[in-house]
Design goal:
LysR family transcriptional regulator, seven-stranded mixed sheet, 10 helices, WH_DNA-bd_sf, DNA-binding, alpha/beta, transcription, transcription regulation
Length: 288
């Protein structure tokens, strides 16, 4: 049996409604009337034989089936953009020099660079990993065109760049380990100037918990090694805490750490730089 084909315009409307939370707000984005969007979604629901939205007085929410479709829909739109762009967009050329903190380099950059190489094969991207404060200095010196930084690090302006990612900073340690029970609490931290370090120490001081800095490393891998060996605990982005590590939640008595942010700071401008910046921001949106 031949399956029906999805209309990319309907998929775009579906994503706009899901992301905006309402037909009227989405109508502005896709340049259609709310009634036209309603008809599109009705046909889509009939085609898939599934309810996609729960209609409420002031907003709409995705059903479980709608949540499942949203992931597919975003990938379809991305693939459509790449396909059409391959044939219609003028080929970009040139060089972009990008800076990145260590933790971002291991999480986000591989997918960004792989996709950018497919969509813009004639653009050379050079990546420099390092401390946020050093990367900003290299940007100011003209050695980088743009850089990702951990917002809040010492030596950086609070409003520097465009925030592209925010997530909870949590305590992490070895699952079943004993380091969290020791006093003074052994910590694995980055060196002076790191926002994670400053937030963690301030929270422990405020909670009156004795600690000692057992290990210092500029790289997440070094901090993680101490946790894996159950020699220390550390403040870590929630998305980086994977088995055999675990979050050390409220039962441990450790204080909450709040959120941390990643910002994109740009220097040079141009079509290639704009394209890479957009793909970096899209990668962080998908990462959430």
């Amino acid at each position: 049996m031949d399956l029906p084909l999805l209309d990319i315009d309907v998929i775009r409307s579906f994503v706009a409604i899901a992301e905006s939370g309402g037909f009227s707000r989405a109508a502005v984005t896709v340049h259609r009337t709310p009634s036209a969007l309603s008809m599109q979604i009705k046909r889509l629901e009939e085609m898939l034989d599934q309810p996609l939205f729960i209609r409420e007085a002031r907003q709409v929410r995705l059903t479980p089936q709608g949540e499942a479709l949203l992931g597919y829909a975003r990938r379809l739109l991305k693939l459509n953009e790449e396909t059409v762009g391959h044939f219609l967009k003028p080929a970009l050329t040139g060089q972009v020099r990008l800076g990145s903190p260590d933790d971002v380099g291991t999480r986000i950059l591989p997918r960004v660079l792989a996709r950018f190489a497919r969509t813009h094969p004639a653009v050379q991207v050079d990546v420099l990993a390092g401390r946020s404060v050093d990367l900003v200095q290299r940007l100011n010196d003209g050695d980088l065109d743009m850089t990702l930084v951990t917002a809040g690090n010492d030596g950086l302006e609070p409003t520097l760049g465009e925030v592209v990612h925010s997530e909870p900073l949590v305590w992490a340690g070895r699952d079943g380990g004993l380091a969290v029970q020791r006093r003074p609490l052994p910590l694995s931290l980055a060196n002076q100037g790191c926002a994670w370090r400053r937030v963690a120490l301030a929270a422990l001081d405020h909670a009156g918990i004795d600690y000692r800095i057992a290990y210092s490393s500029e790289h997440c891998a070094g901090q993680e090694a101490a946790m894996l060996a159950d020699l220390a605990v550390a403040p870590f982005p929630r998305s980086l805490v994977k088995p055999p590590l675990r979050r050390l939640d409220n039962e441990t008595g450790l204080p909450e750490l709040g959120h941390y942010q990643i910002a994109l700071v740009r220097g040079a401008a141009g079509p290639a730089h704009d394209a890479l910046a957009e793909q970096v921001k899209a990668a962080f949106r998908d990462y959430r």
